[in-house]
Specification:
Structural class: alpha+beta
InterPro entries: RutC-like_sf, YjgF/YER057c/UK114
Strand content: 25-35%
Radius of gyration: 14 Å
Distance between the termini: 11 Å
Number of helices: 2
Order of helices and strands: EEEHEHEE
CATH architecture: 2-Layer Sandwich
GO molecular function: deaminase activity
GO cellular component, one term: cytosol
Number of domains: 1
Pfam families: Ribonuc_L-PSP
Shape: globular
Largest sheet: 6 strands, mixed
Protein name: RidA family protein
Length: 123
């Protein structure tokens, strides 16, 4: 069974914040957006922190936590931000981090980072 979670018909973007497919949960990429949908002007550490907090919020709506995350894909706008990003990321994922891919790429939004998540939690 496939369940689309958090779809809002008022949102102009054609995506679901999360999709559950069996025991897997796929989160759409998250960025450092404030409550108005605007990218914050912070540095990479601040943008990474907000991005992870947004991921936590979507996971919570789906009955999951960061401990359920099995894979992340991270896009950084600037390779020089990798060290500062990695420090914040490590604070959240601790001693049992998920598998991860990290690439450098221009982003569609005017931010420094985007993170996509796959979680596993048996229904």
């Amino acid at each position: 069974m496939i369940e689309r979670i958090g779809v809002d018909p008022k949102t102009p973007l054609p995506l679901a914040p999360a999709v559950r497919a069996g025991d897997f949960l796929f989160l759409s990429g998250q960025a450092a957006l404030d409550e108005t949908g605007t990218i914050i002007n912070g540095n990479i550490a601040e943008q990474t922190e907000l991005t992870i907090q947004r991921i936590v919020a979507v996971l919570q709506k789906c009955g999951c936590t960061l401990a359920d995350v099995v894979k992340t894909t991270v896009w950084l706008d600037d390779a020089r931000d990798f060290g500062a990003f990695n420090k914040v990321y490590a604070q959240h994922f601790g001693s049992a981090p998920p598998a991860r891919s990290t690439v450098v790429s221009p982003l569609v939004v005017d931010g420094k980072i985007e993170i996509e998540v796959v979680a596993y939690k048996p229904v």
